[in-house]
Amino acid sequence: MRELIVHGGKMADRKIKLLLSKLGLDVHNRGVITVARILRDAGMEVIYLGNALPAEILSIAVQEHVDVVGVSSLGGAHLTLGKDLIDGAEKEGLKSKVVFIVGGVFSIEDEEKLKEMGFDGVFTAGVTRDEIVSSIKNLVLARKV
Amino acid sequence: MEDKKIRTKQLLKNMVKNENPVPLYSKKALDRIKKDFEDLKNRYSAPDSKMSWSVTPYTILGSEIPREMLYTPLHLSDLDYGFDIGFPGSEPFTRGIHPNMYRGKKFTIRQINGFGGPEDTNQRIKYMLEHGGTGISVIYDLPTTQMYDSDDPLSKGQVGMSGVAIDSADDMEILFKGVPIDKITISLVTHYPSNTAILFPMYLAAAERRGLPIDQLRGSVQNDITLEEVVRSGPEYIPPKDCFRIQCDNIEFIKNNVPYFNFNTLNGYNLHEFGTSGVTEMAVAVSNAIESLNEMIERGYEVDWVAERLAFFWSISSDFFEEVARIRAVRRLWYKIMKYRFEAKSSRAMWMRCHVQTSGISLVREEPLNNLIRAAIQALSAVFGGVQSLHVDSYDEAYSVPTEEAALLSLRTQQIIQEETAVTEVVDPLGGSFYVEALTSDIENRILDEIDEIEKVGGYVASIEKGWIHNRIANYFYREKELIDKGEIKFVGSNVFKSEDKKPSIEVFRYPRGVEDRQKAKLEKLRMTRDNEKVQYALNALENACVRNINLVPYSLECARVGCSVGEIFKIFKKSFGLWKPPVFW
Q1: From B154, B494, B506, residue closest to A126, measured CB to CB
Q2: Of A132, B63, B117, B490, whose Cβ has the fewest other Cβ atoms within 10 Å?
Q3: Prediction ipTM score
């Protein structure tokens, strides 16, 4: 994948490929669908999985060779299932290759916990389209170059 | 094919006629103000004017209805007091469903509760009642709502979150232990038809165990196909036609057996919050109501008998006058539909009774205390609209489920409106305002236009199957996100008057520990102590009813009585109806 990145930090013709998913049984998908559309319209390749558990998310991430895994949780399970996701990624050797981001409703304390846990990006309500797009681009670049 | 169906808009156009119109304002009076009004308007409309006469407000979940700068009797030149507004408690019910409204009965203070296990929520319910709550709403956790048991692998880490965990009738018994469910109204926020058909029987089984006659119980279930098939993200869905059938099975069973329970709370709330205009919110809920009533008539019931227990649930957002006018508008429209389309005879069947909740999506993370003000203003517009029951969202809900303190503040907001402001003393206080009456009529027409769009697609169930409604929603909220990013929809402290304080200190709710283990242990015990032969027999009978299109709720009740779990019953639904893949909408 590395040869697809042009030196100097600019993205080449290869699109950033993302896997987005609702985490577990959470019913709220307005946010993740909005983000999926935003990223698609920004020229990225988006796979939206719907509701899934960490193991399934990781196996599809491997299968599809994605650059980014994004999960959405507004139901309160971000710490428990979020940890399962990151632990699983470490175990599969994915953590260093793939960018992991999470969005949803979290307390400020939990926002910090999610970062400490290993999420590369934590997004909450109020984040703008430009902030989402640019931070994902930057995170992918930082990972690849 | 669609064209053969009755179209509500055309029907009302033909049938709602004022045979003997008596305009409220005389021609002479109107003529007298016309010139001044035109002069004023022309100054704003002139090519060199920097101001606009008409402005379209952009607000969260708003309908983008243009507003003129000033409203006068000229906007109401045809208004006939008796025909268009009338008296509260009388047709066309624009001013309210009861003659004396809040003088007779104040709106019910019904705050929603649900977190942890049934033991935890039971304590919160008692706390709210001890502090003056006059009704109760209970919301279920993610596994229960999505109909999986607490020990299902899919439920891991989510038990007792964003609602209370219920696995069986035993949990329902614990949830309401010591709560006078024979005296106060209980709203079970069973969003979907499928989980209503599972959880409401568990509630009944719990009541039976307390020796309470179920035909005396009062309250509401939600039971709305919109929530199961449109406003939901979940791993498994049953097909819309089967979901609609369960919705009607619930209506039929509850109306026959628990006659004081509202069997169907047409839920605009979650749809509006998910991302539609307030107009679409109401058009969808009313279309669903029309389709349910048609189905019940098909099943051989009198429309009056059914419609008397229909209720609505709206989300009240930030455009103050739009919200007041919307409630008044849908009340008048519902009356017209019941009277003219369904030829209802009883007044009660023509009542648009509603519970409302302030808007969750309007809550902002930055400077969270501002949310107290937002919710209070929204609540006041609901009261001016003449609603029956109210929930005020808590200021900390952009972070988590509310703390006890935050929940108490929501309750106090309602009590301050009721006890300190005197707004409840006069019925429909904004009725007769040139602006509010003009906006009410405008919104009524807009709702009817959107009902017409749905009927042209082939009706509400068809609009779900075809993904029409899903697309409409996705387009709305995607655009709304752009308007927020551009600062056209404003949030104080967030995208205008930005907060310096990015990390406010806020005490947030912490879920109680050990709920998942506790629920799992109870389930394990239940599976060992119940009569598993009876369980299998009850589940088989339920499957037979599902497949043979016999009302399935009595069989689900038997399942609840013998100790079946939520997940076991849902498995029967999935096996009987198969799974449906909802349309992709992004």
Answers
A1: B494
A2: B490
A3: 0.86
